[in-house]
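2 proteins. here.
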Amino acid sequence: MKMKDIIPQYVSYRQSLGEKFKTNASILQCFLRHVGREVEIDGLGIETCTAFLYAPAGKVTANWFCKYTALKGLFEWAVIREYVTGIPLPAEKPKRPQGMTPYIYSDEELKRLFSAALTFRKNRSRTCPECIRMILMLTYMLGLRLHETVSLKLEDIDFANCFVHINESKFYKSRIVPFNNTVQGLLTGFMDWRKQNKLPQNADSSLFTDSKGTPVCIGTVRGCFKRIRSKAGILRNKDSVYQQRIHDLRHTFAINRLTSWYREGKDVQKMLPLLSTFLGHKHLAHTSIYLAMTDNLLEEANSRFESYVNNESHG
């Protein structure tokens, strides 16, 4: 069977099981372009598949393992259906590279990012700086995933009750995310700007569009963010493989929320389930990845501990 036929069939099968299967489907489309549409699946060899795993960096990256998982699933499914007799993948996987350390933006860096978002363009384009800036601000202020922010529609914003409705995000879960008066003011101003620029006003219209009314895609936002980050002068170091990402805004939100709770004297352990629900995590354990210790958080934790010790010693 030809690759142009087998990959859509496999993707359809996985989605019929209730999986979104977006990431793996995208990887398999890249694999299809790599090997060619007319190639027979039983004609693929380990050399071809290995070349795809290492492309384009030519070395082992985190994406190597994502590709491997996607291809292994495809070939295992094909073996069961006797489209192939074996799995043309390396028998042994390489050592996984050190993972990316989440970056926590300082308040001053956040201000620079949001400011640079309005002036990052070198040439006039359909991409509206006002939209990009609002996407970044909402992603941080509400602790959203980027795809959740970009997917928002006008009808998802309830100004009367101050919340946004996130529809079927990760794990097919929907949730309501409340916002405060500051965010309400920003959204109100953004809505006025949309009207002034004659952008679509139907309830089911995308909140974020380009100047022609076409919904903004994630790839566009990420491309803009690289230029915004550079203009804001925010870099780990010039030799670092991983630079700051938009997703680090969500990390920053979580850390800042925890730090605020410490400063307010609240029982952080009891508050963690609230943070987990707010972030849309399926399990409380998933929230732990956002709890990387920063200097501020350690300072607040140490302060609380010292206060506890002092109270006990004088009790």
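next one coming up
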Amino acid sequence: MVRFRVITVFPRIFDSYVNESLFKRAKKEKIVSVDTYDLRDFTNDRHRKVDDRPFGGGPGMVLQIQPVYDAVKFIKSKVKSKKLKVRTILFSTRGKKLDAKMAKRLSKYDELILICGRYEGVDERVADHIADEEVSVGDYILSGGEIPALAFMESVSRFVPGFLGKEESLEEVNGSFPTYSRPEVFYPFRSFHSPSSSRAPRGISKKSSVWSVPKILLSGDHKKIAEWRKAQKRD
């Protein structure tokens, strides 16, 4: 089992996502575990403050090192065995970009502690002395680390045996190719408008009003279907 331990100032953000679909089943079957920790529970400030102005001036507020340090220390004290592999991740725009190779590597850990930043960032001493590595989910800016943490947890969990049910479901294994389902022939003009309407939906012309599944997929020839899918794969 991989246990995700998430440190955040907004723990309720994770409730709905990890209690639905694949995560819900995986948690029930003890394939993965998700625990959230409110950073405000670890501050020494009587007003539960976890941020302060940046040294040197500048806009916004910075998450302080003290509550992050105490949160990570507390979580590590809960790890039952020294034999368990633990990794602490800080989400940062300066981190290494998340990809399938990284997700597969980190899926081998028993405990993943995820630090979600907020506001203008996190005291740099967290990256220097507490986190084992910094991770970015893309070349764009978000308001905090919660959405990156969700993307990270799902990408890592997909490599945990049993999470998807079948390894063949891994797009990382099979590649990405076009897929289709019923009906074999779709009539968008009929679908979106009543028979009495003479106007086609915006962006859809009557000339392209029949969308069909490629005939090869209806042939029943699995060898040719496999060859077609291989030819259609995208990296």
